[in-house]
Design a protein that fits this description.
Elements: E1 4-7, E2 10-13, E3 18-24, E4 33-39, E5 46-51, E6 58-60, E7 68-73, E8 78-83, E9 92-99, E10 113-114, E11 118-123
Parallel strand pairs: 2-11
Antiparallel strand pairs: 1-3, 3-8, 4-5, 4-9, 5-6, 7-8, 9-10, 9-11
């Protein structure tokens, strides 16, 4: 099991940027596929982005392609989500998650460990 702690959320105006970070507790972080998901009240948690161990396999949801960038620093056991050109519809609680396999997945069920979430609010 790996413990994940997100940070970097906040309130930003439309068109602005935020950078989320997620730090993992385990030194085996490098073996995990890492993902970002988001959730708004009353809706299911949805996939945002995922990255494999060395960053050469990355998936994005269509809704964030070209605006969000996922990256990772295996030395610091941290995964990042750079969010640019933010829109009000990006408002959600953002969660990072760890997938112990080597397969980059967009399904929530593939991820075993989750952070507590960080709120992102984009005002119009």
């Amino acid at each position: 099991q790996v413990q994940l702690v997100e940070s970097g959320g906040g309130l930003v105006q439309a068109g602005g940027s935020l950078r989320l970070s997620c730090t993992a507790s385990r030194r085996t972080f490098m073996t995990y596929v890492m993902g970002w998901f988001r959730q708004v009240p009353g809706k299911e948690r949805e996939f945002v982005a995922a990255i494999n161990w060395n960053g050469d396999n990355i998936y994005y949801a269509d809704s964030v392609k070209g605006r969000f960038t996922i990256s990772r620093d295996n030395v610091k056991s941290t995964v990042f989500l750079q969010m640019n050109s933010l829109k009000p519809e990006d408002t959600a609680v953002y969660y990072c998650a760890a997938n112990p396999t080597s397969v980059v997945e967009i399904r929530r069920q593939a991820y075993n460990d989750w952070g507590q979430g960080t709120q992102v609010t984009v005002s119009a």
